[in-house]
Design a protein that fits this description.
This protein has 2 domains: 60 residues, no CATH class; 38 residues, no CATH class. 15% of the residues lie in helices and 31% in strands. The strands form 3 sheets. It has a two-stranded antiparallel ribbon. Strand 1 and strand 2 form a beta hairpin. It is globular. The protein starts with 17 loop residues before the first helix and ends with a helix.
Length: 137
Amino acid sequence: MPEEVLFKSESNQSREEIPSYLRKVADNLDNGDAITLTVGSESVTLNPPARPTFEVKAEREGLAGNMAERSIEFGIGWDENDSEEGGGSGQLGIEQSLRNQVLIDQPFQARMCLKNRISPKPNASNTPSTDQLRSTK
């Protein structure tokens, strides 16, 4: 099927910068707002329907014998001429890294264990071990 590129942006970003872009898209989706993409004087505004198709793809690309480039692609798609809502092939799951698990060590107190940011103060009586966290998945 032919494709018309309405907008494209590709740039090197740090792992810390990328989530802010994804959060803005997520916030607009949560609020039912349109999504406007801009770079310089170029922009496009799209308004996904209530149930678009959400595609996640992990790829390995490159020349034969040197498939060194990896990518994770997230896509939100819909047919502008179709009132039908998106389809799908099943429930998507994205695992969270253990270092980002919330640990409860006292009632109503939670700490986010982030590598090199917060050092948790373990309390043997109420802090789950790494093995216990893994077994809850």
